[in-house]
Design brief:
The complex is a heterodimer.
Chain A lengths: L1 H26 L1 H28 L2 E2 L2 E2 H22 L1 H9 L6 H4 L5 H6 L7 H15 L9 H27 L1 H4 L3 H8 L14 H10 L7 H9 L3 H4 L1 H24 L6
Helix pairs in contact in A: 2-7, 3-7, 3-8, 3-12, 4-8, 4-10, 8-10, 8-14
Chain B lengths: L1 E14 L3 H10 L2 E15 L4 E5 L6 H8 L7 E6 L8 H4 L3 E5 L11 H11 L4 H15 L14 H13 L5 E5 L7 H18 L2 E5 L3 H7 L2 E6 L2 E6 L1 H8 L3 E7 L10 H5 L6 E5 L4 E5 L6 H11 L2 E7 L3 H9 L8
Parallel strand pairs in B: 3-7, 3-8, 5-6, 6-7
Antiparallel strand pairs in B: 1-2, 1-4, 8-9, 10-12, 10-13, 11-12
Helix pairs in contact in B: 5-6
The chains are: A mainly alpha, B alpha/beta.
């Protein structure tokens, strides 16, 4: 019961913070409108770009155009959700620790990680979310996807845990800043590996495949779960693997974060 | 209420030679040095007291405050506030304290001020009725009404500080930590803020710990001061004790009816004090006597003076705390601590 009310409270706070951030965005109308327009334009460009490329490649290593489109679309969803809710972790790596702004979060009666992430609601992510759903919508009729209750459930599970793979990678690399004061480039380097996840990993050489599967396991955010839905496979590996990787990365991330908070040195004032 | 025992904080610092060359060298072969920012500090604060934390820049005041508020983890030693250890049970602990860092703000920069309070209300789980009462009280003490609808970025420094103090008090904390609450403010605003701190302390028995460079804050607000320098505690006690112990510059001024009669006075012989302990200055019109009130009471001095000669006007002034502290910082005053 107590645990439940705690979760309820977190959701409530989250809602309040999201409203707060939307109000903040709308405080500066021109900036807000330009940003929204820019987001639409950049996503439209991405869609056009994709259709041009895929028009040239009918199939890739045995994968058809629509199958690749499905994987690509699936890959955007967890990325977008993570982007929407935990974007402030980037600022941990770039400024919050270095300038001692982390003090503020430690004086609040909520977990410091929650306090940091909840503060920013990155609406740019809606663009990626939109493109992701469009790609799935376009590709689903062209792939052999069985729409059953079980598959819908597995889809939601896969999406949920894939998101935490993104968050986990960011959390681990951002936590490094507690010791090094700045880790923005480290977050960037590891985060960018997600670019490999948009395509079937079978098109890469062994080394890259190994890295995106076991080291920075972004393959579990897209290729493994998505391919399960369209070509089948072992759900314990393809979707179970996503769950395991997410739990593993988040555990390491939270552990490092908590250790980092103890090592935090603030800045002179 | 607040117990601090042998608190210590060390930081690792990389030493670099100057210039880009030094930076490159340090990048490949870093040389580290341990800096002790807070060195074995102990003190105790009873409930409802206002404690002033003073010391020169870089003395370690902020580091102590940051350890007491759970922001930094001490290297060794312990602190306990309300029976809780700040860095161990942080989330629970911070519900009972309020913190203001004068140089930073916890307000939502882009939004109207009152938006900050509605969010803090939720974070600290303040009930609707309590919130209304609390805002009315804070409004009265800190006069927020004029700018509560303005975006925080448009507030003046004085308004912002008042708003920040209100934000830290919204959840009726038992202890209030203020790190330089009057920094950069004009005289009138400083006075406002001091009155507000007083009012809160008196109304709610809130324990207040503040750091400051403004000695008016100390004189007007604090029941007690702890002075630190280079991470070590130099003095701990009431202001009157500080003055008594180190106030060498207490001064008595008077104008004798007959200027020549002043030569009849010989304080040093009468009380057996050296020139250091009591000095006399006579410009032919007014006589100034500087004395150490720890060694000779003002009453004896007055009695002796008035029984020796007639005076037109007499004035006894307090030791100037600024002078004392300047002396201690420069270690001119010997501390027998």
């Amino acid at each position: 019961m107590k645990r439940l009310s705690k979760i309820h409270r977190m959701f409530k706070l989250h809602r309040i913070f999201i409203k707060q951030d939307l109000k903040r965005l709308m405080e500066y109308k021109i900036d807000f409108l330009t940003g929204a327009l820019g987001m639409l334009v950049s996503q439209a460009v991405e869609l056009v770009f994709l259709s041009v490329i895929f028009a040239q490649i009918p199939s890739l290593e045995g994968w058809t155009f629509t199958q690749i489109l499905f994987i690509y679309g699936f890959a955007l969803l967890p990325k977008a959700i993570d982007h929407l809710f935990t974007d402030n972790l980037w600022m941990i790596g770039y400024t919050i620790i270095r300038k001692g702004e982390f003090d503020k979060y430690l004086t609040r009666p909520v977990s410091s990680l929650f306090a940091v992430t909840v503060e920013k609601f990155q609406i740019d992510a809606f663009g990626e979310l939109f493109v992701g759903f469009v790609l799935l919508g376009i590709s689903i009729p062209g792939v052999s996807l069985e729409i059953s209750a079980l598959n819908i459930l597995l889809f939601i599970v896969a999406l949920f845990f894939s998101t935490f793979i993104y968050t986990g990678v960011k959390l681990i690399t951002a936590s490094v800043a507690f010791w090094t004061k700045r880790s923005g480039q480290i977050i960037y380097m590891f985060y960018m590996i997600n670019e490999f996840s948009k395509y079937p990993t079978t098109i890469y050489n062994k080394a890259v495949r190994f890295i995106v599967t076991y080291i920075v396991p972004f393959a579990f955010t897209a290729f493994f779960p998505a391919s399960y839905f369209i070509v089948g496979g072992n759900p314990w590996y393809n979707i179970g693997g996503t769950v395991v990787m997410a739990v593993l990365l988040m555990s390491i991330g939270i552990f490092l974060w908590n250790r980092g908070v103890k090592a935090y040195e603030s800045a002179g004032s | 209420m607040i117990y601090v025992e042998n608190l210590r904080k060390e930081f690792k610092k990389t030493i670099k030679e100057p210039g880009l060359k030094g930076s490159v060298k340090s990048f490949f072969k870093p040389k580290n040095e341990i800096i002790t920012a807070v060195d074995d500090i102990s003190f105790h604060v009873p409930r409802g007291e206002i404690l002033g934390f003073i010391g020169p820049n870089g003395a370690g005041k902020s580091t102590v405050i940051k350890m007491l508020t759970g922001i930094l983890t001490p290297t060794s030693g312990r602190c306990e506030i309300n029976g809780q250890i700040p860095y161990k049970n942080r989330k629970n602990y911070v519900k009972e304290i309020g913190v203001v860092f004068g140089q930073r703000t916890q307000l939502w920069w882009d939004l109207a001020l009152r938006e900050t309070y509605t969010v803090l209300k939720e974070i600290y789980e303040v009930g609707d009725d309590d919130f209304k009462k609390r805002m009315a009280f804070l409004n009265e003490v800190l006069e927020l009404e004029d700018f509560i609808t303005s975006p925080v970025r448009t507030l003046s420094l004085g308004q912002r500080m008042r708003a920040d103090i209100a934000a830290s008090l919204l959840h009726s904390p038992k202890v209030l930590f203020l790190d330089e609450p009057t920094i950069g403010l004009d005289v009138v605003v400083k006075d406002n803020i001091r009155n507000a701190i007083h009012a809160i302390n008196e109304n709610e028995k809130t324990t207040v710990i503040l750091t400051t460079h403004d000695l008016q804050d100390v004189e007007n607000l604090c029941d007690r001061i702890v002075m630190i320098d280079k991470g070590k505690k130099l003095f701990d006690g009431g202001i009157s004790v500080l003055k008594e112990k180190y106030g060498q510059s207490r001064e008595m001024k008077f104008v004798p009816v007959d200027p020549k009669a002043a030569s009849k006075l010989s304080y040093n012989a009468e009380f057996g004090l050296s020139e250091d302990e009591l000095s006399l200055e006579n410009d032919g019109h007014e006589v100034k006597v500087r004395f150490n009130s720890g060694l000779i009471s003002a009453e004896r001095l007055l009695n002796y003076t008035l029984s020796t000669l007639h005076v037109k006007d007499i004035n006894l002034s307090d030791a100037d705390i600024e002078e004392i502290i300047k002396g201690i910082y420069r270690s001119e005053v010997k501390l027998d601590a």
